[in-house]
Amino acid sequence: MALDLDTDGIHQLLQDGVRDKVYPGAVWAVGNSLGTTAAGTAGVLDPERPSELIQHDTVFDIASLTKILAVWSTIGCLVEDGKLQLDKQLGDFWPEVYGHSLSQVTARHLLTHTAGVPLRANLKNLYGTDPQGIRGGALRETAHRPPGEAVEYTDRAALILGYLAENLSGQSLDTLATHRVWLPLGMSQTRFGPLPTGTVRRCAPTELDDVTATHLKGTAHDFSARLLGGVCGIAGAFSVLDDLATFLRYLLAPSRSVEAPGFGPAWIKESLRIQTGELSPARGLFWHPAPGTAPETEDIWVHYGFTGTGIWISPGKDRWAALLTNKLYYTRDREPLTHVRNAFRSLAFA
Could you tell me the pTM of the whole model? Predict the structure, then answer.
């Protein structure tokens, strides 16, 4: 099960990131379809408590990895249940969007970020603070371009798909993800926030909250998630390294799982291929080719989270990797972490 992996190089890379204040701490793992083959930690949980090192079981605000763990996975369940056809226009079966721009959009458009919906969430300013008002506003919003015309990453795609999953299943997104995906896989430490007090102690702090003058901890950093009570398709989930390893290992070998979630090999295979034709940047279904790689030959797919998280998967190489940091503790500047992520991916998939 051993991989030819430069663990010393990964350790040095991540320690350098701590030294350079890219993030206070990081946890990482690399593995294959049989399990985790290497893992490690670097740095501290909270710079205000420098003697408290970050741990393998540190809980992270995974931010946009919610889009994969909660939305992509549950949409896959609904597709494989036969409740959702990816290329059917939403207006043909979803009364809430009939007569509005979204009626011409398909789930595939949303999953490839080609739906033409507005690029910024901006929920409070546009729709207020009532969750139902936000839902109605987001589903009735005018498109800014026709679907299928361009690839433009937007949080709204996941927000809308989360609402669609709730509509088709009759369950809230957190209930659906928990019972169709997380619990069947044994991901017992993955959940939407806010987190209970006992768990908050193990949680990596993120950005300084202007209201409380303390760093957010156990409460989602993402403003849209907080506005919607902690649960939405955009962000809001928390997880630990072992749970992400379990999830990624399943994607490589779904047939080996004793307790399978509601999606399987067909959904995984469909998602990890280019869906956007000649449009750029290339996209699968929510996953995208890792920067600096050639999707036709290297087959390395990734999704990131704004708080400093990332997961990679390569069926062709039978390898996965996860890197969790709380880089938002220091800054929103993306460039330093981008360098670390790309270097980590190079080492993990060498």
Answer: 0.97
